[in-house]
Automatic annotation (TrEMBL):
It comes from Piscinibacter koreensis. Transmembrane segments: none annotated. PANTHER family: DUF839 DOMAIN-CONTAINING PROTEIN (PTHR35399:SF2), SLR8030 PROTEIN (PTHR35399). The lineage of its organism: Bacteria, Pseudomonadati, Pseudomonadota, Betaproteobacteria, Burkholderiales. This is PhoX family phosphatase. It holds the Pfam family PhoX. PROSITE patterns: TAT (PS51318).
Length: 672
């Protein structure tokens, strides 16, 4: 522990330098240890991961591509104990797969062998994993009765306004009340009543749609499928990401074909509506391994990332903030109909509490005005602009919930530079949203490119030294909101740009507007989580623009408040854009604490309530290894974490996504 009387300084650590090392790099005085990696067994009798592509049974192991993560404290007696620092359940997203390393010689061609598809489907979803301290150090507990795997096949209830909707009728659920699986789980959230929220992000591409399917659908359904990324023509279909629908006649494979294949009017004899069962915020009670899981459709359907709650205030509704991660998509807020009751924080039936707060409420989309103000616009049939939208004739509020993007289009929401994670500042309540990047933002856009606006003001980037060329906003930025009156129900807000990602040497007037130095420059912010203990703003990157210089990283920020950097004008010669900014990140307000291994992104962060143990996820190390190199381990882009001594394989290990535990050697809080 720190010496008695020692004064703790936030950001007192020595910044980690940018590095291409195939390792977990932390500052002097810190330790990073791998604690839970792809394939690790989660139940008694499951053999250890062999790291040679022969492992099976991933519904009883860690899934792949660890992403968002939350900490749920557990007492010694095994009851919920949110403030426990020694025992917890971690809820961990398994977003997708680094496919080439899951099979002996990489994936087989289509039609995909059923045995490979089963592995891949099981590698998706969520893990609930017990962690407990042995001799003062956390390790995961293989045989815990709390351990659970939710996969791409797990039965899940449809809840909220879209439950029972005709657009959710399938052969599996003619009553449109359930679906199977949760996929591409990216960001997370933690409810004030102790459950996990997990966001389904790039689910659309998992579904095959046949070329001639357009002719079998109504114009309205074609509009919806096109808006969600599954447009087809008479001659060109939409291929699925992994080809799972090619694995045989069983409906567990055919469900991934979202074409009309039956003859029913309502879809009850095929899987034409199966795609409508994905795209939600999903709620899981981590404390009961058999609890019912629910898709909370009131929170809209999009490429969901995290879900961040406003600080609960007794007698007031709860606000939940969310982003839709695709180029030009929107920022959303859900406001519960029910007012918060503090007794619900410790209620035994957590699923029922979720029903109370997450099934009824109002969904809003954000408009960022040029003058630094903003509006939350309601998306429901009660809004005449939605109800009378010429672009898509909404049938009812279930239809609006299923097609939030189209409702956002109807009201002219602001097209953003890929909204990823959001987080709420623990003391001043301001809401931070990462805009990870948008290479399609331009001064003079053509085609699908987007024009500049003050909330997305950058057209230039310095990638690999080519600073004179417009490449759009490839380094990303972080937008910050303040609700009018600090109220969760506010329908207006103020906004600014907290930070612009940039290379430290880039133009200070058009690119490196935050004045980032070598110790703090970053590109493509993605994960963003505030520490409830230290108040530090943890920023994680998922980058492709600065990776010639450094692997992806995590930084700690000490943000001030909205507008504390004043106005800045980006002068493009013929035109200019003025925006409001946070303070420049001069030495002392932002520092790099962690750099991950080769080819990785950093995503997901949770910590013990005392702030002394932090868990983060390293996702898809070595993912740019070509399939043709799988038989030659010396050519793998990464060998982490095996090269650091974790699991089998050693210096020539297959790379694995993994949870990393960060501690400070003097026992102090992380970020000091
Ligand atoms: Fe899964 Fe938008 O990152
Ligand atoms: Ca560069
Ligand atoms: Ca993400
Ligand atoms: Ca990302």
């Amino acid at each position: 522990a720190p010496a008695p009387g020692a004064i703790e300084t936030l950001l007192g650590f020595t910044a980690v330098a940018k590095t291409l090392a195939d390792a977990s790099t932390v500052p002097a005085g810190y330790t990073a240890a791998t604690v839970f990696a792809t394939g690790d067994p989660l139940f008694a009798g499951v053999p250890a991961y062999r790291n040679d592509g022969t492992d099976t049974g991933y519904d009883r192991r860690s899934g792949d591509c660890h992403d968002g993560m939350e900490y749920f404290g557990l007492s010694a007696a095994g009851t919920p104990d949110p403030l426990n620092n020694d025992r917890a359940l971690l809820g961990i997203n398994h977003e997708y797969i680094t496919q080439q390393f899951l099979h002996v010689a990489g994936p087989a061609a289509r039609p995909r062998p059923a045995s490979e598809t089963d592995i891949e489907v099981d590698c998706h979803g969520v893990a609930i994993v017990e962690f407990a301290k042995t001799a003062g150090k956390f390790a995961y507990v293989q045989n815990s009765s709390f351990n659970r795997r939710v996969t791409g096949l797990t039965e899940i209830e449809i809840s909220g306004p879209a439950r029972g909707h005709p657009l959710l009728v399938t052969k599996f659920s003619p009553s449109a009340t359930k679906t199977r699986g949760t996929i591409n789980n990216c960001g997370t959230g933690k409810t004030p009543w102790g459950t996990l929220l997990t966001g389904e992000e790039n689910w659309s591409g998992y579904f095959y749609r046949a070329a001639n399917d357009q002719a079998r659908r109504t114009a309205k359904v074609n509009t919806a499928l096109t808006r969600y990324g599954r447009s087809v023509t008479a001659t060109a279909g939409a291929a699925s990401r992994y080809g799972w629908e090619t694995s045989g006649p069983s409906d567990k494979y055919q469900r991934w074909d979202t074409s009309v294949t039956g003859s029913s009017v309502d879809g009850s004899d095929d899987y034409r509506n199966e795609i409508n069962g994905q795209g939600y915020i999903v709620e899981i009670d981590p404390y009961r391994a058999t609890s019912v899981i629910k898709k909370r459709t009131a929170l809209g359907r999009m490429a969901h990332e995290s879900a961040a709650f406003s600080k609960p205030v007794a007698g007031k509704p709860l606000a939940v903030y969310m982003g839709d991660d695709a180029q030009g998509e929107y920022v959303y807020k859900f406001v519960s109909s029910a007012n918060w009751s503090a007794a619900d924080a410790t209620a035994a039936n957590r699923v029922a509490v979720g029903d109370k707060y997450l099934d009824a409420g109002r969904l809003y989309v954000a408009r960022f005005n040029d003058d630094g103000s903003g509006d939350w616009v309601e998306l429901s049939m009660a809004n005449p602009t939605v109800a009378s939208y010429a672009g898509y004739a909404f049938a009812d509020n279930g239809d609006v919930a299923l097609h939030s993007r189209l409702a956002g289009d109807a009201v002219g929401a602001t097209k953003m530079d890929r909204p990823e994670w959001c987080g709420v500042h623990p003391t001043n309540g301001e809401i931070y949203f990462t805009m990870t990047n948008n290479s399609n933002r331009r001064l003079a856009p053509t085609g699908s490119q987007l024009p500049l606006n003050p909330a997305n003001p950058r057209a230039y980037s310095d990638i690999r030294g080519a600073s004179s060329t417009q490449q759009g906003n490839v380094n990303g930025h972080i937008v910050r909101l303040r609700e009018t009156g600090g109220e969760p129900t506010a329908t207006s807000f103020q906004w600014d740009v907290y930070l612009f990602g940039a290379e430290s040497g880039a133009s200070p007037t058009l690119i490196n507007l935050s004045g980032l130095t070598d110790d703090q420059d970053f590109s493509s912010p993605d994960g963003l989580v505030f520490s409830a203990s230290t108040g530090l703003c943890w920023i994680q990157t998922d980058d492709g623009a600065y990776t010639d210089t450094t692997n992806c990283m995590m930084l700690a920020g000490l943000p001030g408040q909205l507008g504390d950097g004043g106005n800045v004008t980006l002068n493009y010669g013929t035109t200019s854009v003025t925006t409001r900014m946070g303070k420049k990140a001069i030495e002392g307000t932002l520092k790099r604490l962690f750099v991950g291994p080769a080819g990785n992104e950093i995503t997901g962060m949770c910590e013990t309530p005392d702030g002394k143990v932090m868990f983060i996820n390293v996702q898809h190390p070595g993912d740019d290894t070509p399939v043709s190199d799988i038989s030659n381990p010396s050519r793998y882009v990464s060998h982490w974490p095996g090269n650091g001594g974790y699991g089998a394989g050693g210096a020539l290990a297959r790379p694995r996504s993994a949870t990393v535990m960060i501690t400070k050697n003097d026992g102090g809080r992380i970020g000091t």
